[in-house]
Amino acid sequence: MAKKIVIVGGVAGGATTAARLRRLDEQAEIVMFERGEYISFANCGLPYYIGGSITKRDALLVQTVEGMSEKFNLDIRTLSEVIQINRDRKTVTVKHLPTNKTYEESYDYLVLSPGASPIKPPIPGIDDANNLFTLRNIPDTDRIKAYIDHEKPKKAVVIGGGFIGVEMAENLWERGIEVTLVEMANQIMAPVDYEMAAILHQHIRDKGVRLILEDGVAAFEQNGRIVKLNSGKTIETDMIILAIGVKPESELAKQAGLEIGERGGIKVNEYLQTSDPSIYAVGDAIEVKDYVNGQPTQIPLAWPANRQGRIVADHINGRDVRYNGTLGTAIAKVFDMTVAATGNNEKTLKRLGIDYEVLHIHPNSHASYYPGAFPIALKLLFDRKTGKIFGAQAVGYDGVDKRIDVLATAIKGGLTVFDLPDLELAYAPPYSSAKDPVNMAGYVATNLIEEMVETIQWHEVNDLVEKGECIVDVRESIEREMGFIPNSINIPLGQLRKRLNELPKDKTIYVYCQVGLRGYLAARILMQHGFKVKNLDGGYKTYSAVYA
Amino acid sequence: MAKKIVIVGGVAGGATTAARLRRLDEQAEIVMFERGEYISFANCGLPYYIGGSITKRDALLVQTVEGMSEKFNLDIRTLSEVIQINRDRKTVTVKHLPTNKTYEESYDYLVLSPGASPIKPPIPGIDDANNLFTLRNIPDTDRIKAYIDHEKPKKAVVIGGGFIGVEMAENLWERGIEVTLVEMANQIMAPVDYEMAAILHQHIRDKGVRLILEDGVAAFEQNGRIVKLNSGKTIETDMIILAIGVKPESELAKQAGLEIGERGGIKVNEYLQTSDPSIYAVGDAIEVKDYVNGQPTQIPLAWPANRQGRIVADHINGRDVRYNGTLGTAIAKVFDMTVAATGNNEKTLKRLGIDYEVLHIHPNSHASYYPGAFPIALKLLFDRKTGKIFGAQAVGYDGVDKRIDVLATAIKGGLTVFDLPDLELAYAPPYSSAKDPVNMAGYVATNLIEEMVETIQWHEVNDLVEKGECIVDVRESIEREMGFIPNSINIPLGQLRKRLNELPKDKTIYVYCQVGLRGYLAARILMQHGFKVKNLDGGYKTYSAVYA
Ligand SMILES: Cc1cc2nc3c(=O)[nH]c(=O)nc-3n(C[C@H](O)[C@H](O)[C@H](O)COP(=O)(O)OP(=O)(O)OC[C@H]3O[C@@H](n4cnc5c(N)ncnc54)[C@H](O)[C@@H]3O)c2cc1C
Ligand SMILES: Cc1cc2nc3c(=O)[nH]c(=O)nc-3n(C[C@H](O)[C@H](O)[C@H](O)COP(=O)(O)OP(=O)(O)OC[C@H]3O[C@@H](n4cnc5c(N)ncnc54)[C@H](O)[C@@H]3O)c2cc1C
Ligand SMILES: CC(C)(COP(=O)(O)OP(=O)(O)OC[C@H]1O[C@@H](n2cnc3c(N)ncnc32)[C@H](O)[C@@H]1OP(=O)(O)O)[C@@H](O)C(=O)NCCC(=O)NCCS
Ligand SMILES: CC(C)(COP(=O)(O)OP(=O)(O)OC[C@H]1O[C@@H](n2cnc3c(N)ncnc32)[C@H](O)[C@@H]1OP(=O)(O)O)[C@@H](O)C(=O)NCCC(=O)NCCS
Predict the structure, then answer these.
(1) Ligand 1 close to Cβ of residue A135 (< 6 A)
(2) I need a surface site. Which of A397, A465, A483, B157 has the fewest CB within 10 A?
């Protein structure tokens, strides 16, 4: 007899499940419920449609109900909310929103892909703010766009410096709106660490966005014309975007008695089955296992939703497929820059008490002599003993996505930092260097592990300055005009061997250069001449991203 | 006692070895001989300096003799050719070219990195052609550039459609010169297969370059003003670039009795030692092991030279490091397009009698709704049984380098096609799709192995047409206006389920669409309704790249 599969949610996870189910089984009965009017739309494109770089609204609709029904022979019911799961009789109760009529629909397998909804806390005045928006779907998008087109706001406040907040800040700016971005933490873009985000802070401010960190919203006043912050600051504004995160839509699952994780995500096993094996769940609504550290986490991104949807369809059809956890590879365009990360960041490793080693390098995106090369700030976190790669972060104007993808692939391939120099990546001057940035990260990591050099981190410098330690700048003197570490002395690398007598043998010498390379060369020279020496990891560039 | 290392050749392999040697050992005596005037120059940038996109000649000089000597405390001797290796007494004989004086220099370890020289066969008239150039180093570059600047040639013939030939064709064209590119084989860019190169042929011709395939040079006449081809064609020209390949500079090694491979490369072991363990060799001059098939090969590229140079320095210093073979990852800019490849191509696998499966897809470089997305023609070769990845090729306007790098990493990580869907790559609309092209390749490969669909290849189509087989075009009828396979009938995918009765149950149905995706969906429907069906891999797009 034909299987009957009911799917809740018709976008990333849901629509993917439906399509693959049909390819696997022409006979199955497949019913897909979607609360909204649209299925299979490009969530990720919404900010860019508002900003105007995507010009056609239709382009956001990846599949239409008619098209998809026809191609995949599906029973798609939009404006239909599943309001209850009746596990005992294997049915769902559905409310047809235009008529408010409810009915039951039976299933053999139920797939939940309800996503996550924007967090909207009960901040005083929030309900009276008639210029406040959240962004999740097409109607939200239409509302924001109509407001901008008709009300022509001059000023906007974006609350939340995550992906959606930053993308919205950029896209409102594209529309000529004066933007203030407010973030509670000390940095935007939580997947990267502070000193990496600092590069973005600078860039965003250079673009003319007012960035307020370490401050939250206390209240909205005058129907949202005034945003009052915890610090007491007030901001006048014509519109507000609230983008402080999303929470899994797990209420339905919870009411049905399915297991829910601590942070509200639906719990699933490696086959993506909930605690009821005939009910699967995927996408933003579920809790996943962190691929690197094995801990439960939530990663509301499109790749996992798509991947999980396909796996569920396969498993329902008897295939032995598993979901192995989520790395959390993520990327965003931030004005002219790109920020991307994969695996665990330093904050996470610290929190979990995992021992790690860290490096920062600034290689060019491609051969420096070929036009269009820009440095990439690349950070790598790894295990000092095994060389296991915990995570990587990159910020730059060019070639950032490629390096993070290569590193994400390396992690999934179980490669260690010792293998990175052996990655044979494509080189011609417009694309890379003969040693790709990823190779370089491998070299630098290996040198750390093999004790070719010891390093200190950017955040340790000011302390050394205060203590009056011996800090040696090995750059050319002209480079110091753009800034240097206070109280550092200058001995250019080329003169070092001749000026060894100027340096103390009894205390540690801290060397630095612009990015870490010449500092490393200096360290090698000094170490072999019997000095105690440490090199500033990432050089003045990483240090000054935070302190200059 | 301090080791004394003598290096022959001061560019990619040689200079890298010297730098790393010094970092490892401050005491070592390091002598680097270079025949030319310059060391450590950017070979790969030379065509772009001629073309004008690199404007400063200085930018080509990565390191100067003074700078490098100082930084690394090296004894660098330019204009000094090593003319003999005296293995018995561990010395080399050196000729100082300006003075013609020779002397001996002793070594504990000798490192050969002499590179490869342009092939210049004794074609009739070649010695009288005073407008004929080859390109390897700075003096060659100066000569070519001066000729263009002063003689203002209107027409040029480039002989050889490899990387350097194609780059030179493009860069001469950039200078406003009418270019004819002559290639003996039926395709340019040998690392990719014919149907992939066909995309480039079209693009090059669209740019106005005259491309002559399957024809070689028979003679040069009138001091190089006439190029006569084997076919009898004659081409008038103002200048000629000869770029038909390079041959290892292994003469010195050969005379010293070191083992030489069949194709002229110096033989080395996994530590890059020649048959004399105190003599190492790296770079273009050596024979390497093909990483995929294990056979000896020659890969004259910069990544291997750099990697090998570092390994040699490490091995001389007692470290246990090995060179594991070369994948041959390669890339080139071809006007507005990029072509890249890694691992083995179909020609190689066929030649070696290795059983393989093949797929072609055409995914967008990033989300199609975000501006600037272009399709990537991506070809994957793999083992049908194990899923082992043999190689990959890509051609497109955007995102080609990233996908080949990810696949090269996957190969080095020992990942199979079954793992590709699990690569968690960075997605936001400007960078990729929720299923990255590499994920997609994994899905398509898995479907082939799991017999979800059978495919035919582009080169099998015309035969089927001739035999009057049943070929069904499942695209929308409007898409046929841009071309279709002769004698194919049109049943758009959306109508297929309703029109099954129009199709024969007793013979194989060959379905196709634009890129292979809808053909796959059609195949799934038909298979499950009891039809015998095969899908055209890569769709009309791959087919028409060759035949339209
Ligand atoms: C503005 C924006 C930008 C984004 N940008 C990126 C990006 O660049 N990269 C990236 O990786 N990810 C991005 N994301 C996240 C990505 O879109 C989500 O991770 C992905 O869509 C999750 O898929 P899902 O199927 O779990 O949920 P969704 O795609 O949200 O689909 C869930 C659907 O279920 C419906 N639903 C919920 N409950 C019910 C019910 N009870 N009955 C019927 N229907 C129901 C909802 O109406 C919704 O349409 C972005 C998201 C947004 C909002
Ligand atoms: C125009 C051009 C473009 C290129 N583009 C790319 C590209 O985009 N990507 C890529 O990966 N590769 C590219 N390459 C290839 C790359 O440059 C080589 O693979 C690499 O330089 C090889 O390094 P090597 O040390 O073996 O040889 P080389 O870099 O050629 O150095 C060898 C040196 O040894 C010297 N020498 C030889 N014999 C003696 C002797 N007996 N005594 C003293 N000195 C001697 C030579 O004068 C020469 O300078 C390109 C090459 C050229 C010429
Ligand atoms: C579009 C959507 C309905 C999914 O449909 P889908 O059919 O699974 O996905 P695609 O159209 O990408 O096609 C993938 C399938 O085609 C196959 N395929 C792709 N290219 C192919 C080709 N050239 N030849 C043969 N098969 C091909 C793949 O193997 C895969 O099939 P499989 O799963 O059976 O292996 C769903 O992803 C969706 O709704 N997306 C929009 C929402 C969303 O993802 N939002 C977040 C990001 S903005
Ligand atoms: C430049 C050249 C002399 C090599 O010098 P090199 O010092 O080995 O290479 P780089 O300058 O790239 O530096 C790499 C070293 O710096 C280290 N390094 C790089 N960035 C670093 C950073 N930010 N912090 C600390 N160390 C760093 C690496 O670990 C590596 O050292 P290691 O080998 O001891 O591990 C040589 O590659 C050359 O001559 N190149 C031009 C010719 C050529 O390659 N042609 C073909 C391509 S056009």
Answers:
(1) yes
(2) A483
Report d(CA B166, CA B160) in Å as an integer.
8
Beta pairing, strands A357-361 & B288-289: unpaired
Query: Which residue has 């273009």 as its token pair?
Result: B284
CB contact under 8 A, B27 and A306: no
B449 touches chain A (CB under 8 A): no
A404 touches chain B (CB under 8 A): yes
Rg (CA), chain B: 26
Question: Which entry of B24, B42, B44, B219 is annotated as an active-site residue?
Answer: B44
Do B117 and B249 meet the contact criterion of CB atoms below 8 Å apart? yes
Averaged pLDDT of chain A? 98
Q: Name the residue facing B367 among A44, A419, A432 (closest C-beta).
A: A44
pLDDT at B13: 98
CA distance B197 to B394: 10
Residue A191: left if φ>0, alpha if ψ -120 to 50, beta else—which one?
Answer: alpha
What lies within 8 Å, CB to CB, of A19 at 6+ separation is A68, A72
A34 is written with which tokens? Answer: 């979607």
Query: B461-464 long-range contacts, Cβ below 8 Å, gap at least 24?
Result: B461/B485, B461/B510, B461/B536, B461/B543, B461/B547, B462/B547, B464/B510
Residue of A nearest to B303 (CA): A434
C-alpha–C-alpha distance, residues A439 and A419, integer Å: 9
pLDDT along chain B (548 residues), means of 10: 95 98 98 98 98 96 95 98 98 98 98 98 97 98 98 98 98 98 98 98 98 98 98 98 98 98 97 98 98 98 98 98 98 98 98 98 97 98 98 98 98 98 98 98 98 98 98 98 97 97 97 98 98 98 95
Cβ neighbors of A543 (< 8 A, separation 6 or more) are A458, A461, A485, A512, A536
Whether A409 and A385 have beta carbons less than 8 Å apart is answered as no
Tens of pLDDT, residues A257-290: 999 999 999 999 999 999 999 999 999 999 999 9
Which residues in chain B have their CB less than 8 angstroms from residue A23's CB?
452, 520-521, 524
On whether any CB of chain A is under 8 Å from the CB of B223, the answer is: no
SS3 A319: coil
The residues lining ligand 3, judged by C-beta closer than 6 Å to any ligand atom, are A 11-12, 15-16, 19-20, 23, 40, 42-45, 62-63, 302, 306, 310; B 361, 434-435, 440, 443-444, 447, 515-517, 520
Total beta-carbon pairs less than 8 A apart between chain A and chain B: 240
What is the whole-number distance in angstroms between the Cα of residue A224 and the centre of ligand 1? 27
Distances in Å between the alpha carbon of B270 and those of B113, B277, B280? 16, 12, 11
Q: How many CA atoms lie within 13 A of A269 on its CB side?
A: 10
Euclidean distance between CA atoms A270 and A286, whole angstroms: 12
> How far is residue B270's CA from residue A169's CA, in Å, rounded to a whole number?
54
Chain B from 37 to 76: CB within 8 A of any A CB: 42, 44-45, 48, 53-54, 56, 59-60, 62, 67, 70-71, 73
Contact B156, B180 (CB under 8 A): yes
Average pLDDT over residues A471-479: 98
Q: Are residues B70 and A338, on separate chains, in Cβ contact within 8 Å? A: no
3-state secondary structure A98-115: CCCEEEEEECCEEEECCC
Name the residue of chain B whose CA is nearest to A421's CA: B307
The CA distance from B358 to B356, in Å, is 7
Q: Over the stretch A168-219, which tens digit does the pLDDT of each residue have?
A: 999 999 999 999 999 999 999 999 999 999 999 999 999 999 999 999 999 9
pLDDT at A174: 97
Are A414 and B412 within 8 A, CB to CB? no
Q: In terms of Cα–Cα distance, which of A373, A388, A369, A389 is closest to A329?
A: A389
